[in-house]
Amino acid sequence: xxxxxxxxxxxxxxxxxxxxxxxxxxxxxxxxxxxxxxxxxxxxxxxxxxxxxxxxxxxxxxxxxxxx
Length: 68
Prior knowledge:
Helix content: 40-55%
Low-confidence stretches: none
Shape: globular
Number of helices: 3
Oligomer: single chain
Radius of gyration: 11 Å
Structural class: alpha/beta
Distance between the termini: 23 Å
Number of strands: 3
Order of helices and strands: EHEHEH
Largest sheet: 3 strands, parallel
């Protein structure tokens, strides 16, 4: 089973993505800020990360750069 990290400060959108992915048997974790995304990625080691560009703390590009 693949693990997905959804990173979005819009909780309704993150919830919708989480529900949709779980229906297709993905393990899903969610974060609502850039710093939280980095912490969560280090803990759960996701296979895929869906990142919103406009995040509080660190924007999506900064999160991607930090993860690389």
